[in-house]
Amino acid sequence: MQHMPDDPTLLPAPWWVPDGGMHDFELELHRELPHGHPLHGVKATAVARCEGCDDVLFSVANQPFPWAVVHLTWTGREERAPWPMTTPLASLAELLTEWADHGCNDGAASSESRS
Ligand SMILES: [Zn+2]
Q1: Which of 8, 27, 48, 83 is the most buried (most CB within 10 A)?
Q2: Which residues partner with 87 through β-bridges?
Q3: Residue 86 Cα, ligand 1 centroid: separation in angstroms?
Q4: How confident is the model at residue 79 (pLDDT cuts 50, 70, 90)?
Q5: Where are the domains of the chain?
Q6: Confidence at residue 113, expressed as pLDDT on a 0 to 100 scale
Q7: 37-52: per-residue pLDDT in tens?
């Protein structure tokens, strides 16, 4: 089952890694996280995003879950739990199985124009 390397750059569409890095996503995450949120106070590094729905995959340090998908609200301020919606993941393989049908794959698969 471990044929999927834990390398976000190898994720298939609609997941992709922007060229310019994802520091803005990390800043926004920290703006939004309320106290009591699973990622509050946690070192999370943005590593990929979904082209279809703007969900962002974060690499999470020192937590029971090494990855988390977060749907940022882009309000630029602290949200109220459970926002921003966060799905902890045990592996990238779980991302591919659990999120394969989250609604974005079909559209992204046919929009191959991303250079
Ligand atoms: Zn999506």
Answers
A1: 48
A2: 69
A3: 13
A4: very high
A5: 8-101
A6: 46
A7: 999 999 999 999 998 8
